Every structure is written in structure tokens, then in C-alpha cells.
Amino acid sequence: MKRPIYRFTPALLALAPLLAPAADRNLESCIEAIANQKPGAMVKLEKVEGEGKHLYEFEMRDANGFEWEFMCDADTGKIVEMESEVRSPESLSFRQGSRYTEEDAARVALKRFPGHIEEVEYEIEENGEPTYEFDIVDAEGRETKVEVNAANGKIIEVWTESWEIGEEPDERR
Hints:
By secondary structure, this protein is an alpha+beta fold. It has a single domain (10-168), classed as Nuclear Transport Factor 2, Chain: A (Roll), CATH 3.10.450. It has four helices and eight strands; from the N terminus they run H-H-E-E-E-E-H-H-E-E-E-E. The chain has helices spanning 10-19, 27-37, 92-95, 102-112; strands spanning 41-50, 53-61, 67-73, 79-86, 116-124, 130-137, 143-149, 155-165. The protein has an eight-stranded antiparallel barrel with strand order 1-2-3-4-5-6-7-8. Strand 5 and strand 6 form a beta hairpin.
């Protein structure tokens, strides 16, 4: 079953803390923390879970048009990870440390999490390593985010998506 994707608007984001269940009350704290660190326009917001953690994944576009991804702990309202995104695996910053192609990394992700790839993002971790982030939808419609290190081909993060607001058509497959 395909979950709806809601178009992000400032009004929808303003309502999110009011509509969110009690477990999502730190959304506003996350928004403030991100705005203080990297002002810009929100592109997409997702709630993900895994390893006993509940996180918000924010995608922001700064004034220069660069995209950033923030992971914010839904229980504490604190930023736990920040990555930059690049438009293509051909980007110099991505290519420099990459040893695995997108196809190789996709095979690794799909072997462990069968389904179809719905979206792909090309990210640069805080330590400078390039990664592929695949959104894989399984036969039951569950979406799993699988991040594969482009330098060594290892899966480094796995999250199950609970909900999503916003969309990036250029990342869809």
C-alpha cells in the first residue's frame, strides 16, 4: 500500500507540532535547532525509526541552493547528524572517495532489503565519505531507508519511514 506524500508548505509545517502525537512533540525543538545551525527552506521532512531510536530527517536548501540533511532525535529535540547532498554521483566531492557505483550499492541494499528503489540521494557524511541513500519499498508498501557507503560498499544505516511531508521529484526512480 502506497502511503500519501504531502506537499510541504509553511502552513503545514506550522500545524505539524499541534497535530503530532505526544511522541512527536519535539518536532518544534528540532526545527529551531536546524534553523539556528543552517537557515534555509525546508524541502522534505520524514519521521524514521530504527535501532530503538525515533528521528526526524529534515532536508533543507540553503540560500546558495545547496541541500543539507539533518537527523534530529524525536525524543530529545537534538540534532544527531548533518550531511550535505550532491545532485549526482559524478560530483567531484562524491567521486573522490567513491569506489562503488550506484548499481553496485543498490545490489547490496536490495539483497538485504528486497523491494524496489523509489528514491536515491547522494550524500557526503560529516567525515567526508560519500554514501548512497536508497528508499526501498517492499511488497507490503513499507519504506526502508538504506544508506550504503560508496567507499567500501557496507550498509551503515537502516531506518523505517513512518511518514513523509514533501517530495523531491529529481530523486524518484
